[in-house]
Amino acid sequence: MKKIFLTLLLLVVCVSLGWASGMMKKKLPPYDYGSVTINNYSQQAGMPPVQFDHWLHRQYATCRLCHVDIGFGMTANSTKIRSTDNMKGYFCGTCHNGKESPVYQIKIFDSCAKEYKRDEYKRCTRCHILERSSAREDAFERFAQKMPRERLGNGINWEKAEEMGLVKPADQLEGVSIMKPKLKIQQDFSLKSKVEGMPDIIFSHKKHTVWNGCELCHPDIFVGIKKGTTKFSMVDIFEGKYCGVCHDKVAFPQSDCARCHNKSPQEK
After folding, report:
1. Which region holds residue 217: left if phi is over 0, alpha if psi is between -120 and 50, else beta?
2. Complete domains list, the chain, with CATH
């Protein structure tokens, strides 16, 4: 009974904070959660915008590999990708170059080309999508059926999928990544809840470094590396800062309160 009460309390507090900050968003269908529209230059060139699906790529590569080593910005349209960049082997063209990919372990189609025949236009529409297709939705459903389930977000528990070996995301890419020794993983620590009755947060460096390493979060998102240096609130998170840079966009949403607020009062 106590556990049910705490769960309801978490939900009420998170919803209240979300509405107060004006950041509560319409719940997306699972296949759309984490999708990003890239449209800096596409329509100017007479092409539909690019629809990037995180679920499709994160089964093969960590967030750190793409957002640190390859250099994609953490916010949509911040990277200003051009087709010429892709053709030179940057950004999407790092893997999408028509060659055998060490990350995907299969031959990946070219991302862009200066010239193409009419029958090759289908290759362009794999990324430049005018409207959602049932084929992409079906592909997601087939993939999700094999993964451990989660209540919110895109319905996939990626942390558990990685632990079970169902996904093995590459974290380094020869010729792109600077190969370096792994750092010692810091211990888990608790963050005191500011709401009475709300369980404290247990933050796990181990779980985050699998996908992010250290440099994805420090110093751009969290300036300090000492506990308590960076001050933030749930309102900040709902506004897309700090934890909210990833959570509610690609990682599980903040409305899944118990995933973070999971330290019982009996724990020391």
Report:
1. alpha
2. 2-29+183-263 (3.90.10.10), 35-145 (3.90.10.10)
